[in-house]
Amino acid sequence: MTARRGPSLNLILTAVVVVVAAAVIGGIVLANRSSGAGGGGGGVPDERLVPANAHTLSTVEGGKVTLVEFLDYQCPACASYYANVTKKLEQDYQGRITIVTRNYPLQMHPLALPSAKAAEAAAKQGKYKEMYHALYDGFQDWAVSGKTTSSDTAAATARFEEYAKSLGLDVEKFRADMASADVQAVIDRDLADGQALGVSSTPTFFLNGERFTPTAKTYPDLDRELRAKIDAALGG
């Protein structure tokens, strides 16, 4: 009588490899699901992208699309994006998507922090969006000196106060708020959230929790690329 044989060594090893591979692949999938920025089921809490009191340029309650930008008001790239992409995008998608802006002043820009404080001080009087536009529309007036980045805090602050006055703000309150701990705390929170999300440069965008990494080389192509993703998210 032939002795009954158990599973061969090769069969056992093959089974082990299959099990380990399945576990590894499953772990990778789970990790990828947990490493998103929050919008559509990622592991990073939504409040890291959109805190309860976040500033918005367009708001749609319960909307399908949220675009978040981490920005630096003295960043030339941010100003170029604003002039070539985001300003028109804000107009064209007003009331259709939620657009959130977050502070991310870079140390390489001497006036990045003061300008962020100006935006936050204006927000305390209900004029955040207006100051956001004033800062970028007036970029050449305060952010640059000739062909270099300006570091003249006094001149920039005077310009910010001119913007505040033109917007009908209480300039004394605006000045006090710029220097306040509350305003600094908002900026610190934005910086901490951005760092937690891996933001290292500006502008950095997240569309429905997914980081937008453009492949386009020109602003018109970049504009089309971003709009195509927004339209797809809208289901259009």
TrEMBL record:
Gene3D superfamilies found in the cross-reference section: Glutaredoxin
Ranges for domain Thioredoxin: 38-235
Q: Which domain of life is it from?
A: Bacteria
Transmembrane region(s): 12-31
Tell me, what's a Pfam family for it?
Thioredoxin_4
Mind listing the UniProt keywords for this protein, alphabetically? Answer: Disulfide bond, Membrane, Oxidoreductase, Redox-active center, Signal, Transmembrane, Transmembrane helix
Residues in a coiled coil are none
The UniProt similarity line reads:
Belongs to the thioredoxin family. DsbA subfamily.
How is this protein named in the record? Thioredoxin domain-containing protein
What is the source species?
A: Saccharothrix mutabilis subsp. mutabilis
